[in-house]
Amino acid sequence: MARNCNAPRNRRQNNQGSPGPSVRRTNNRSGKRKRKSLYLGSNTLNNEAGLYVELFINGIPAKFLIDTGATVSLVSDTLFEKLKSRDRPSVRQVTQEIIAANGESLKIIGKALFSLKLGSFHTVIEGVIAGLSVEGILGLDFLQTNGCKVDLGNKVMERDNQHIPLLLQGKLGVYRVAVKDKVSIAPRSEVVIQGEVLNYDSAVQVTGIIEPSEEFLDRGKALVGKSSENLGHGQKDKVTELLLEFKHLFAVSDSDLGQTNIVKHRIDTGAARPIKQPPRRTPIGGQDDDLELDIRQLQETDKDLQTVIGWLTTGSKPSYSQTGKHSYVVKSLWSQWNVMKVQDGILFREDPETNLKQVVIPMKERRKILEFAHDNKTAAHLGIKKTLVRIKEKFYWPGVRGDTWSYIAGCSICNKRKKPIPKRKAPMQVKESGYPMERIAMDILGELQQVKRQQIYLSYK
User: Fold this and answer.
1) CATH class held by domain 284-417
2) Where is the composition biased (Polar residues) (predicted)?
């Protein structure tokens, strides 16, 4: 019995003369059944602040914590040991694992039937005996079975017109949390670290995640805190006033980028051709649900589109040789002369297949169209074909198909949840020859180390 008992050794020595309950191991070592897990809303490994109810359990007065986040009712092993041997119920095995709010598993002794008395209300509950710092927990099973309602405002528990008073115990408030070790956190990331709760009964170790607070950033506390670490009290006040006065000049996040016209510069690339880059996407937090574009103003600021609009307005189509000095966009729109139209100063393209009017989008606004058609909350990250159809319902630009393919191929969310876009390969074919030596295949390997014959390549025929 002593070998199989789960109670601590000092408790077994103190109760050697009294017959104890029949306690069996709760560990399932057969490996055939997977143990189920039950979760508690409270952290039962530390003293919890909350509502308690005074009751009698098997004739002994006790205080139980009311916890609607606990799926089962629990009785502490300490309270169970206080019961007289004749009042102790028989303990049955528990195959379930009970996990507290902090993620740790509780030490389970077993489960048994207990007699409870709350005021004039008597009932019998099935409670799990576990290692708790409180005397017990009345969980959701007890509250739901007995039709109990908790009134937090009046601090009472109602049942059948009976009002059972509740006690608010434990320390409530806001406490300072200090990081135990010096930690470096990379930009745009979060880490799980160890810390301590200060100004409490004792330094309690906790585990938490560091993340930015929007309220902290909006009030400018982060900006002031970084700039006044080594300053005196009067200097801090002056710096705080200065920074808060001009806080609109500082970027709050990576997506909060401004512009200035104080300094202008040009990069002379000479005769080098521009390199086409795939459009970059805006973070989800900086996206807008609605797409608002001033098409007329955008086309007026685009040099290529103004060239095409001028040709269409005058009705004079230039020859192909006259388009040689213009960009790829101008040449592509010139080749579609019959479907290009100008209406109210806006350049359109009439789709020959659907007869839809498509607004021609300038270069700098194409990324916004791709984000709206693919990354928007209502876009659902569709595939290439469906996204392209959605874009071409209203918009067009030369190379829209290739830009859509490149943008979706670089979407991190799609790459995580969908299969990669397959690359087409030319099928292998057998080449037939009509006579000997008509076709010769040769493999060349090199450069190798030079040999005596001054040869550095190997060929295979």
Assistant:
1) mainly alpha
2) 13-25
